[in-house]
Amino acid sequence: MSDLTSLYQEIILDHNRNPRNFRVMDHPDRSLEGYNPLCGDRYTIYLKMNGNVIEDISFHGSGCAISKASASVMTSVLKGKTIEEAEKIFEVFHQLVRGEKNEADILEELERLAAFSGVSAYPARVKCAILPWHTMKSILENESKAVSTE
Amino acid sequence: MDLKTKDVQEVYSVERVRKDFPILSKRVHDKPLVYLDNAATTQKPNVVIGALEQFYTSENSNVHRGVHALSEIATQKYEQAREFVRQYINAASLHEIIFTRGTTEGINLVAASFGRTFLHEGDEIVITTLEHHSNIVPWQLLCEEKSACLKVVPIDDKGDVLLDEYEKLLTEKTRLVAITHVSNALGTVNPVKEMIEIAHRMGIPVLIDGAQYMPHFRVDVQALDADFYVFSAHKIFGPTGIGILYGKERYLELMPPYQSGGDMIRSVTFEKTIFNDLPFKFEAGTPNIAGVIGMHAALKYISSLPWENIIDYEAELLRYATEQLQSMDGVRILGTARKKSGVLSFVMDGVHPHDIGTILDEEGIAIRTGHHCAQPVMERFGVPATARASFAFYNTTEELDALIRGLRKVKEIFHV
Question: What's the topology of domain B49-303?
Fold first, then answer.
């Protein structure tokens, strides 16, 4: 039971029940669908940029509690961040769910991410937590590629 | 909780059978293993594990090649297995029993060999909504290649095939019907005998995917009058990587080889190759000899079981689990067909199937969650995924009680 409560922490259950920024965005600058064919989790991430800053970010789709809460927390954390900051946060999250970073090492402002540290004990579920973040990273990388070609 | 049908229990002892399967006494996450993922693969009895060990310990050699003692033993055992399979499914001839890697390869073989030969532009192939991806994609690719058309028989809200619609879809352009005997996602047992009769009235051959039927019932391919029947050993308590394609000889004779190489030839010169006779024409390369021997052991094992009682026993397991699940708030069972095998697909309000799977796993309970390689079925019911508990004859009502307790825990954790 102790393991399961570390996976399904209240903050995760809360974001699953009441996901933040859970909406289809009208006229986004970019959007991308993230899909896990193995389990069927499917989310679209929407992004509105203001120069280098993520002005608005939302998501829509369906999947398990871990993936939905992860997308919800991700959109909450990344709103207002620059691309460089977002990429750093992605790294932190990546290390956290893979058990490569201790939750105590997390910056105070990112403590919402710490709820996902329990995922590292469930290798089969790491992909659920990572899916929205990978989708986000792909959007940002394509964006910067597009910028560099201009 | 004991089964109510005491008669069944007296003839069929599930406790005795469970002792034949070493894995069933293992613990997972420090809880007794409750294995309810039998539609994915079944567990193996000692006699199968022993047959594999015996082969590799004392008999390992290649087949149909050597003159030495071991090769003769291996060849003999390999061909004895073929004869056992023939008897088990009541095929007319040994020429009709082709060893494959499994159900998927059996279907691909028919699609490639029969399909490429007999399907032409504008022709049609008919499947049902219930098919596993392995009985969809090979036909899709074939139809693309041939500019032919794939037609799909719809199902009703219970998961039963609409027979009227099926009949309407068959035309003079239909070259093959490919249908599953039992749905892996819903457990529906299709009325394949009737469906074969309907197709045969129009001279259309029928392939039956028997992967999910074979673990629960006995098949007689001649009584069914199936033209092709495919299944996998690993779903009938045998090893992975081996399966059977049964095909009527008159079709197999007309079909070109699927793969080519050694063992499937009679003579090779650089100008011309003469192919071997059936069934070897379809068995290129060194086969999965140990797999064949393991499958033989599995079939011998299940042949020794009292099937009439097992069918009653499994029906009782399904009835009991269905009743328990139906009485749970917020749980919906998908697939309530007239005739079902031991598959329970369900969804729970407010909890995604993967979360159900993770929480049950922590209790030592193995189920499958996801789309079960049957996305069109999921789409038909408007869900992205389900949780699926699937039974075998070694499961018990106590295990089903554990499943229900586990589901209560899921509701507790998710506050639903």
Answer: Aspartate Aminotransferase; domain 2 (3.40.640)
Tokens of B77: 């055992």
What is the CATH code for B6-44+307-414? 3.90.1150.10
Any B CB within 8 A of A3 CB: yes
| Domain locations along chain B | 6-44+307-414, 49-303
Q: In what order do the strands lie in the sheet with B174-180?
A: B97-100, B243-247, B228-232, B206-209, B174-180, B124-128, B149-153
B149-153 and B124-128 strand pairing: parallel
CB under 8 Å to B159, separation ≥6 — which residues?
B130, B183, B186, B187, B188, B334, B335, B336, B337, B377
Predicted model pTM? 0.92
Is the CB of residue A114 less than 8 Å away from at least one CB of chain B?
no
Read off the pLDDT of residues B337-362 as tens digits, 9 standing for 90 and up.
999 999 999 999 999 999 999 999 99
How many residue pairs from chains A and B have C-beta atoms closer than 8 A?
Answer: 50
Nearest C-alpha of chain A: how many angstroms from B388?
A: 13
Active site residues of B: 373
- As for the ipTM of the complex, it is 0.87
